[in-house]
C-alpha cells in the first residue's frame, strides 16, 4: 500500500508532533504505512529575523503547504497556533489531534520573584503579562524551546520567558537547572488561538480520507478560535488571544482587554462573529 507522507518542519517539537500524528494515524487507519518528510521553512532558515518586524504570515508553514500543492506530501503537520487563518486555494484543515495542555508557562530564573527583563517574541504574551509586570523591560527571543531555556538559564538575554505548556510537555521537559516553571492561569494569560493543538492540513481532494483522524472537541474549539482571529484580522503579530473551553470563549485583545463570552449551542459561530464585530465597532 502507498505510504501516507507527512510533511513537517525539522525542529525537535515539530518532529514530536509528526511522531504523534504517525501514532494517531496508525490507530485510526491501521495498516497504512506513514513516512515523515522533513522540510525547512523560512522561519527555520532565518533564525535571526525578528518575528515581530520581519515575521509576516506563514513563516513556519508556507513550504509545508507548497509540498501539499506540488504532490510531495499528503498531510502537512502544523502547530495550529502557527497556521495563518487564510489558507491557499486548494488546501484545507482535515483534522486536529486531541489538544494538549493549552496553558502558558512563565519560566523564571530561580530566586527571581519579579523579573525585570522578560524575553518573548509574542506581542500576545507581552501585552497580557504587562498587566502583572508593569515595570518590566521586554525584549525578543528566537530559537527552539531548549535554546530559549538555555538563554534564560545563562541569564545573558533575560531573567524570564514564556513558553507553551504543550511544547514543554511534548518535549518531555518539566524542569530545567536554575529555572522555575510557573503555569499561568487563563485570567493572567489567554492562550493563543490553536495553542496546544496539532492541525493536519491536506488538499481538498484528500480531506474526506483523513477526516477519520479528527478529534471533534479540539476541532470545534480551534475552528471557533480561528474564526475569532480571522474576524479580528489578526495573525501572530497582533496581540489577539482566544480560547474555547466548553460553552465559554475567553479572549484578549490589546485594545479591548480580557473578555469571557458564552457560546449558546447552535449559535456558536454567529456569537463569535457578532462579538468580534462589536469589538471592532468600539475601536472606530
Ligand atoms: N511559536 C512556536 C510554537 N508553536 C507552537 C508551540 C508550542 C506548542 C503548541 O502550542 O501547540 C510553540 C512554542 C511556544 O510557544 O512555546
UniProtKB/TrEMBL annotation:
One of its GO terms (molecular function) is hydroxymethylbilane synthase activity. The gene is hemC. The keyword Transferase applies. Its EC number is 2.5.1.61. GO terms for biological process: heme biosynthetic process. Belongs to the HMBS family. Coiled coil: none annotated. InterPro entries: HemC, Porphobilin_deaminase_N, Porphobilinogen_deaminase_C_sf. It catalyses: 4 porphobilinogen + H2O = hydroxymethylbilane + 4 NH4(+). Tetrapolymerization of the monopyrrole PBG into the hydroxymethylbilane pre-uroporphyrinogen in several discrete steps. It is an enzyme of class 2 (transferase). Keywords: Porphyrin biosynthesis, Transferase. Pathway: Porphyrin-containing compound metabolism; protoporphyrin-IX biosynthesis; coproporphyrinogen-III from 5-aminolevulinate: step 2/4. It comes from the Bacteria. Residues 4-204 form the Porphobilinogen deaminase N-terminal domain. This is Hydroxymethylbilane synthase. GO terms for cellular component: cytoplasm.
Amino acid at each position: 500500500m502507498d505510504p501516507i507522507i507527512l510533511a513537517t518542519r525539522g525542529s525537535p517539537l515539530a518532529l514530536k508532533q509528526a511522531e504523534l500524528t504517525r501514532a494517531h494515524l496508525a490507530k485510526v487507519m491501521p495498516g497504512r504505512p506513514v513516512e515523515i518528510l522533513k522540510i525547512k521553512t523560512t522561519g527555520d532558515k532565518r533564525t535571526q529575523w525578528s518575528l515581530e518586524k520581519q515575521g509576516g504570515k506563514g513563516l513556519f508553514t508556507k513550504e509545508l503547504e507548497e509540498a501539499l500543492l506540488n504532490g510531495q506530501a499528503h498531510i502537512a503537520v502544523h502547530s495550529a497556533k502557527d497556521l495563518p487563518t487564510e489558507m491557499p486555494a486548494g488546501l484545507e484543515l482535515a483534522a486536529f489531534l486531541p489538544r494538549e495542555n493549552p496553558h502558558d508557562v512563565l519560566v523564571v530564573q530561580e530566586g527571581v520573584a519579579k523579573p525585570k527583563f522578560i524575553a518573548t517574541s509574542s506581542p500576545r504574551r507581552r501585552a497580557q503579562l504587562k498587566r502583572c509586570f508593569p515595570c518590566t523591560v521586554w525584549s525578543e527571543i528566537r530559537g527552539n524551546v531548549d535554546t530559549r531555556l538555555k538563554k534564560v538559564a545563562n541569564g545573558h538575554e533575560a531573567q524570564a520567558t514564556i513558553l507553551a505548556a504543550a511544547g514543554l510537555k511534548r518535549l518531555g521537559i518539566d524542569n530545567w537547572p536554575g529555572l522555575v516553571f510557573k503555569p499561568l492561569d487563563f485570567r493572567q494569560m489567554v492562550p493563543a488561538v490553536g495553542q496546544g493543538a496539532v492541525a493536519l492540513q491536506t488538499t481538498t481532494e484528500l480531506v474526506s480520507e483523513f477526516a477519520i483522524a479528527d478529534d471533534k472537541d479540539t476541532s470545534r474549539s480551534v475552528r471557533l478560535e480561528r474564526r475569532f482571529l480571522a474576524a479580528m484580522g489578526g495573525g501572530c503579530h497582533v496581540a489577539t488571544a482566544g480560547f474555547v473551553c466548553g460553552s465559554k470563549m475567553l479572549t484578549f485583545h490589546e485594545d479591548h482587554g480580557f473578555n469571557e463570552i458564552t457560546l449558546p449551542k447552535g449559535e456558536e459561530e454567529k456569537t463569535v462573529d457578532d462579538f468580534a464585530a462589536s469589538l471592532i465597532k468600539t475601536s472606530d
